[in-house]
Specification:
Layout: H1 14-27, E1 33-34, H2 46-56, H3 71-85, E2 95-98, H4 101-112, E3 118-123, H5 128-135, E4 139-144, H6 160-165, E5 166-172, H7 184-197, E6 200-204, H8 226-229, E7 230-235, E8 248-252, H9 254-265, H10 273-284, H11 288-310, E9 314-315, E10 323-327, H12 334-345, E11 347-348, E12 350-351, E13 362-366, H13 371-385
Parallel strand pairs: 1-11, 3-4, 3-5, 5-6, 6-7
Antiparallel strand pairs: 2-8, 7-8, 9-10, 10-13, 12-13
Helix pairs in contact: 1-12, 2-10, 3-10, 4-5, 4-9, 11-13
This protein binds pyridoxal-5'-phosphate.
Pyridoxal-5'-phosphate (PLP) is lined by residues 38, 100-102, 126, 172, 176, 204, 206, 235, 237, 243, 248.
């Protein structure tokens, strides 16, 4: 048996190493408080589950779905974009439901990247941006996200050669892992850059609804001309606490949406229909719980950021996402500090280097853990530091 060489190009999956260590410590009876994974601890709201259960009992939903989803779902997505962002989308051509946005993000590279092509990718960044590029035979060019630039890429610093070879640019705001946000002026500059170098933009926006202090993150699609050069990926995972159900979407440029549809229609058979009905309910039903959940995350954020500053871990207070990106003390690597927190405090975090080289010097805390565990974690951190 001989595996394809492209697998060798995939970097070691750091999170697996951390998870193995957590499992080992737990098997020895150690209580580990897990601030690692960004997966909401609160359940999917009941009205969404009710709709899914009803749909599951209907034999019409027991058969193969269509790759492009139910028309009802595409319409619900378009209406949600109109209501939330004032963005008008054609549900037939500019909307494609996905089996979770990660799937679409990974497959998008197949639509653009040929062997030797470049994709511009943020560093630190959500790993599938670069991994999709690598699997398609391309080369990621990493755009550093520096704290002094508010974790936005500096377009002017991208070498002319890389920009000319690039087919795609990935952006993600509100940002995982840094918690940074971008305004419309930044998105305008991105559209301008895409026009200048004739490349496509993929903006990944699953966290626009997880925001605090009255802030409402914008959509890339709000920029006039965005639809000419790009698409936006979005997800129901974070907003509606539906990570386990696997439903997301891509919207925007019709040619790009259709290209992804062509790849997907040869690889998958769509989202189970009962889940599509649940997604319609999520988008069209009561949105009350979104604010309730955000209030919970905001409270957790404030407690954690305060505690981190008390133990000398400097962190900005994020306006959006449920992540806190903290600077570690000098003299440690992210991995070494992560291991120290695990072994000495019984706290699991994500090492910044799991998101790229520029993540060195940082760790990420996720706020998606129950309040009592968060409090316990804080008590342990303060006691460890004292
Ligand atoms: C930036 C970013 N994009 C996409 C996703 C994937 O979300 P989904 O559950 O829709 O696949 C995540 C999940 O953590 C994420 O952080």
């Amino acid at each position: 048996m001989k595996l394809a060489r492209r697998l060798d190009r995939l970097p070691p999956y750091l999170f697996v190493q951390v998870n193995q260590r957590i499992a080992e410590l737990r098997s020895r009876g150690k209580d580990i408080i897990d601030f690692g994974i960004g997966d909401p601890d609160l359940p999917t709201p009941a009205h969404i589950i009710e709709r899914m259960c009803r749909a599951a009992r209907d034999p019409a939903n027991h058969r193969y779905p269509e790759t492009n989803g139910l028309e009802e779902l595409r319409r619900a997505i378009a209406d949600w974009y109109e209501k939330r962002f004032g963005v008008t989308l054609d549900p037939a051509k500019e909307v494609l439901p996905l089996i979770g946005s990660k799937e679409g993000i990974g497959h998008m590279a197949l639509c653009f990247v040929e062997p030797g092509d470049v994709a511009l990718v943020p560093d630190p960044g959500y790993p599938p941006f670069s991994l999709g590029t690598i699997l398609a035979g391309g080369q990621p060019y990493f755009m550093p996200l520096k704290e002094e630039n508010d974790f936005l890429p500096d377009f002017e610093a991208i070498p002319e050669k890389a920009a000319r070879k690039a087919k795609l640019m990935w952006l993600n705001y509100p940002n995982n892992p840094t918690g940074a946000t971008a305004d419309l002026e930044f998105f305008e500059r991105a559209v301008h850059f895409a026009r200048r170098y004739d490349l496509a933009i993929c903006h990944d926006a699953p966290y626009t609804e997880i925001a605090f202090d009255g802030y409402k993150p914008p959509s890339f699609m709000q920029i006039p001309g965005a639809k000419d050069v790009g698409v936006e990926f979005h997800s129901l995972s974070k907003t509606y606490h539906m990570t386990g159900w696997r439903v997301g979407m891509v919207v925007g440029n019709a040619e790009m949406v259709n290209a992804l549809f062509r790849v997907k229609s040869n690889l998958d058979s769509g989202i189970p229909q009962a889940i599509q009905h649940a997604a319609v309910e999520a988008l069209r039903g009561s949105q009350e719980h979104v604010a309730e959940h955000n209030a919970i995350f905001q409270r957790r954020r404030d407690k954690l950021v305060k505690a981190l500053s008390e133990v000398g871990l400097r962190a900005r207070t994020p306006r959006a996402t449920f992540y806190v990106w903290a600077r570690i003390p000098e003299g440690y690597t992210s991995m070494a500090f992560t291991n120290r927190l695990l072994d000495e405090v019984g706290i699991a975090v994500t090492p910044g280097t799991g998101y790229g080289k520029e993540g060195e010097g940082y760790i990420r805390f996720s706020l998606t853990i129950p309040d009592d565990r968060l409090e316990q974690g804080i008590i342990r951190l303060l006691a460890w530091h004292a």
